[in-house]
Target: X8 domain-containing protein
Amino acid sequence: MAIKNSFSLLLSSLMVFALIAIPTISGQPSGTTWCVANPKAQDPVVQAALGWACQQSEAYCSRIQRGQNCYSPNTLRDHASVVFNTYYQHNKNQAGSCDFNSAAVITHTDPSHDTCQFESVPGSK
Model:
């Protein structure tokens, strides 16, 4: 009887652990979102949205400057994704904060690469 109770306790503990750990195994909480350049958007739309976001705050664009950790790869969409996500993370509780005239989309996949880490701030979206 003691073995059966021990096994039941172990099984229950493993189930609780699985319910808690599995959603965060990726290192990000379940439901984490990022904002990246829309691969279907035309380059002029992405460029205009990037310019607008940089005008909102120089801080949004500081990480894509030459010598900074998100400069490479030096492409319009890579730079736009960094800036769009930074804007989104700081404004994600506002409707439409990841739209940029359809130049951006929400993703649940962390777009971080090499030395460029995309921030993620918990929020309502």
